[in-house]
């Protein structure tokens, strides 16, 4: 298997997820997906296999502000923190997948923390 960008991303995603599962058993997972234009996040209960809450920059009220993905990500982070409170979730572990923790991923995590979600 050649070390293309995609295979390196998949390896990193599996490595991050496996480490997090060992450490945070029983907690809710805050899973993030980022594309070139949008960002989405879900609160997932892996024990029951259900999604408790979600937010995305594709939603009309959270829509992209200009072309600044960091600003949109912070809006999505604040929204998921608010929806987590409604779902009764105060604590979650941050699953960034294979994405590096900077830019829009970091902005989302910081906004979720400011909204009261313990990550």
UniProtKB/TrEMBL annotation:
CDD domains: Ribosomal_L18_L5e. It holds the Pfam family Ribosomal_L18p. One of its GO terms (cellular component) is cytosolic large ribosomal subunit. Keywords: Ribonucleoprotein, Ribosomal protein, RNA-binding, rRNA-binding. Belongs to the universal ribosomal protein uL18 family. This is one of the proteins that bind and probably mediate the attachment of the 5S RNA into the large ribosomal subunit, where it forms part of the central protuberance. Part of the 50S ribosomal subunit; part of the 5S rRNA/L5/L18/L25 subcomplex. Contacts the 5S and 23S rRNAs. This is Large ribosomal subunit protein uL18. The gene is rplR.
